[in-house]
């Protein structure tokens, strides 16, 4: 089950919580000192050159025609500081330190003025430098899926790597996405909107992207992000042509791509022989049957050209978290994506759902989930990441009222048990993965592979 909302498509997804101003300032100060940004070396060179220059100037004044000036300066300082309270050399050190601080301050203010003159805020500049130089050297991660689960994961990944590529399922046909699909014959924008907001370096744009209109003829129920993507799709003749503009406007830390640029319908084959078209109908129509297989219609859609290259260069490939049949598998049903994952040497990690999905995965165990992935993908995940923490009874009761229950983690297969790794990954008071704990756990997989 995707990390909730309980009523899919009707609850606005949560934006990153605002960070207090003092904490932001502390974090940015640390970012200036991160290795590889190219700031500390020039500051040190400036300090060394300033000190050498001070010694040279002292040598010039003491041995040259300005000797009388140096003498008067020393006598004035000696009179001002009173030797009985402070040694003369200590006063010189204090004056030198104050002069150096003043020089560094003037350089900082000059840089601030230059940045503002070019329309770039200093806080934006340090974020860009940090992303390009520090996070740009972090592991290359490709995450596939959709729904709130994928966007939740991306919020954690953006803090540890700037090389995240999100491959997003586009088969949603309910809510705002479904209305725009039917009206404009475009791919579903909803999950893309969530992922763009999660990876955006602009808090204002991230908040606006997720704003859902509660009134207004024709726009009620739509999010601003969905409407923006629909507008760009109309203007550019498709989202593919507007992808670079979207990344630049939203200042995306990494990349977000739809699995394919062509509209597709998700089709489910049930155990009782029935066929359901449209993922929004799954929960209501599956009933007592089980989903045996899902496919896209049309089936042989091409992937975006950047996705196979990202899979080829990936150091880690992640599936989920998210709804098995309506978020994870639809992203794997594009043939080029499945082939790219099967051929990639990068470890494949499946993040197990926390809860079952009402009407879709009722009664399925973790082993059933992995089996469905293997049937559709043709590759077994190298690692299965499961949560070891237990939600509170209040949370469990709330989900039970919606027909969702904790996913059964028991596995009969010894091979699968060896691939499992249990960690406390739960958000406090929620049946939802903690983004930061999840991202750190994934980072450990890539660190173990480094020589």
From TrEMBL:
The chain crosses the membrane at residues 42-62, 88-108. Keywords: Cytoplasm, Membrane, Transmembrane, Transmembrane helix. The keyword Chaperone does not apply. CDD domains: YvcK_like. Gene3D superfamilies: CofD-like domains. It is found in: Cytoplasm. InterPro entries: CofD, CofD-like_dom_sf, Gluconeogen_factor. It holds the Pfam family CofD. Its main location: cytoplasm. Required for morphogenesis under gluconeogenic growth conditions. Belongs to the gluconeogenesis factor family. This is Putative gluconeogenesis factor. It comes from Deinococcus navajonensis.
């Amino acid at each position: 089950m995707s990390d909730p909302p309980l009523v899919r498509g009707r609850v606005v997804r949560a934006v990153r919580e605002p960070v207090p101003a003092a904490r932001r300032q502390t974090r940015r100060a640390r970012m200036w000192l991160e290795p590889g940004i190219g700031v500390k070396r020039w500051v040190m060179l400036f300090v060394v050159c300033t000190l050498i220059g001070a010694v040279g100037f002292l040598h010039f004044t003491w041995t040259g025609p300005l000797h009388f000036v140096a003498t008067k300066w020393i006598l004035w300082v000696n009179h001002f500081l009173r030797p009985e309270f402070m040694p003369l050399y200590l006063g010189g050190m204090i004056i030198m330190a104050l002069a150096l601080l003043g020089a560094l301050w003037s350089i900082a203010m000059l840089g601030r003025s230059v940045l503002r003159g070019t329309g770039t805020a200093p806080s934006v500049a340090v974020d860009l430098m940090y992303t390009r130089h520090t996070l740009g050297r972090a592991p290359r991660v490709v995450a596939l899926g959709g729904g709130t689960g994928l966007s939740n994961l991306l919020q954690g990944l953006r803090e540890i790597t700037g090389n995240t590529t999100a491959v997003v399922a586009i088969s949603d046909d309910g809510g705002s996405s479904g209305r725009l699909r039917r009206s404009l014959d475009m791919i579903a924008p909803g999950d893309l909107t969530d992922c763009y907001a999660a990876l955006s370096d602009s808090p204002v744009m991230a908040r606006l992207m997720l704003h859902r209109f509660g009134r207004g003829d024709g726009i009620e129920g739509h999010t601003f992000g969905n409407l923006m993507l629909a507008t760009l799709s109309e203007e550019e003749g498709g989202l593919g042509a507007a992808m670079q503009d979207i990344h630049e406007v939203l200042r995306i830390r990494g990349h977000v791509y739809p699995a394919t640029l062509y509209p597709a319908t998700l089709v489910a084959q049930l155990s009782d022989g029935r066929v359901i078209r449209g993922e929004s109908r799954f929960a209501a129509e599956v009933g007592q049957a089980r989903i045996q297989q899902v496919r896209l219609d049309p089936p042989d859609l091409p992937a975006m050209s950047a996705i196979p290259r990202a899979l080829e260069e990936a150091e880690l490939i992640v599936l989920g978290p998210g709804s098995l049949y309506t978020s994870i598998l639809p992203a794997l049903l594009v043939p080029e994506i499945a082939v790219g994952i099967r051929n990639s040497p990068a470890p494949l990690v499946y993040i197990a759902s926390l809860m079952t999905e009402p009407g879709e995965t009722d009664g399925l165990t973790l082993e059933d989930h992995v089996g469905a992935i293997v049937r559709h993908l043709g590759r077994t995940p190298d690692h299965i990441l499961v949560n070891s923490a237990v939600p509170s009874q209040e949370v469990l009761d709330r989900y039970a009222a919606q027909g969702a229950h904790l996913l059964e983690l028991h596995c009969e297969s010894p091979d699968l048990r060896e691939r499992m790794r249990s960690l406390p990954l739960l958000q406090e008071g929620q049946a939802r993965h903690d983004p930061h704990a999840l991202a750190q756990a994934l980072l450990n997989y890539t660190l173990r592979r480094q020589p």
